[in-house]
Amino acid sequence: MENNRKTLKTIDGRTQMEAELKPLDFVVDSLLATGLHILAGSPKVGKSWLALWLAVTVAKGESVWGMATKRGTTLYLCLEDSTLRIQNRLEEITDDVPDNAHFCTEAFILGEGLEQQLEAFLTEHPDTVLVIIDTLQMIRDARRDMTYANDYRDLTSLKRIADAHGIALLLIHHLRKEYAEDVFSRISGTTAISGAVDTSLTLVEQERGSGEATLYCIGRDIEYCELELARNADNVWELTSDSRTLPKGGRLILLLSALMKDRAEFIGTPTELAELIDPAGMNQISPRKISGEVSKNLGALRENGIEASVRRSNGRRLIELRRADSVDTSGGGNSVPIVPAKPAADAGTPGSGENALRA
């Protein structure tokens, strides 16, 4: 017995490759598989509205932004809300709340009974497919330091429950105020949080109170994507754009096409161009990357009616963009005049200040 504990249990390559394994099970197709996930956003951005809508939509088996769902029981631990607030919000987002959608405003914390409460609910409702905990901070022991080890231990205890019962467990969490070029680096806590979850989702509003946001999605089992959302009059987040359906070259092509729609030419520095097409920094179009992205997508830009080049002049890197219909091919010198870029407010730090915190 003692020797068995000291021996690694391995699988040889042939057995591993020939094993008939259960395919990945999605609760929301191509977005949330079974496992542990986190949805982070700034305070009052609309995370709880999104969580509530997800709980009801999955319980009904209705699609989420065109993605099929696995119908089943859902549990929403809305630990920062009252039953009255939940009722009022439900009346806004839907006329029909199914019996298999469950809501709870009080629960124990991790290590002091929450795990047993979840196990009991999942045993009583074996058809559960989605559990949402809003927020992660509400179920953690405030007396403990939020170290890497503590973050990892708390999240792995939840992941074990999700994996054992074959459910998607979604944690609602916050973003740091500090700006980071990688939006996933703004998830509050140590890197153990993003490392322990299967999928990280960050909801970033374009401008405070605008009702328009981008949901950045990255995970072990999904394709990276950016979902553009708009909150309607019923406080439901609706999909307006999905990066997985964007043209070759992705969001950069759309941003440059929008820029060149009303101008014939642009000649300016990478900082000036980034300031024009992504002033708030929410699309993570940094001056350091933009020259390379333009160079890599010359063909895609040309297919979308834009001639582009990157060159150096007087020690500065310049990007030139011209609408194809403005290029003079006759040699007669009748091309349209250059439209220079407006100077950036702070050429050294694009997206600085308050807007940068919303990136």
Question: What are the salient characteristics of this protein?
Answer:
359 residues; alpha/beta; nine-stranded mixed beta sheet; three-stranded antiparallel beta sheet; 29% helix; globular; disordered C terminus
Topology:
Layout: H1 2-5, H2 13-18, E1 26-28, E2 32-33, E3 35-41, H3 47-60, E4 73-78, H4 83-93, E5 101-104, H5 114-124, E6 128-134, H6 148-165, E7 168-174, H7 191-196, E8 199-205, E9 212-219, E10 225-231, E11 237-242, H8 251-260, E12 265-268, H9 270-277, H10 287-296, H11 298-303, E13 306-313, E14 316-323
Parallel strand pairs: 3-7, 3-8, 4-5, 4-6, 6-7
Antiparallel strand pairs: 1-2, 8-9, 9-10, 10-11, 12-14, 13-14
Helix pairs in contact: 5-6, 9-10
Description:
By secondary structure, this protein is an alpha/beta fold. The protein is 29% helix and 23% strand. It has eleven helices and 14 strands. The chain has helices at 2-5, 13-18, 47-60, 83-93, 114-124, 148-165, 191-196, 251-260, 270-277, 287-296, 298-303, and strands spanning 26-28, 32-33, 35-41, 73-78, 101-104, 128-134, 168-174, 199-205, 212-219, 225-231, 237-242, 265-268, 306-313, 316-323. The strands form three sheets. It has a nine-stranded mixed β-sheet. Strands 12-14-13 form a three-stranded antiparallel β-sheet. A two-stranded antiparallel sheet has the order 1-2. Strand 8 and strand 9 (212-219) form a beta hairpin. Helix 5 (114-124) packs parallel to helix 6 and helix 9 packs across helix 10 (287-296). It starts with a helix and ends in a 36-residue tail after the last strand.
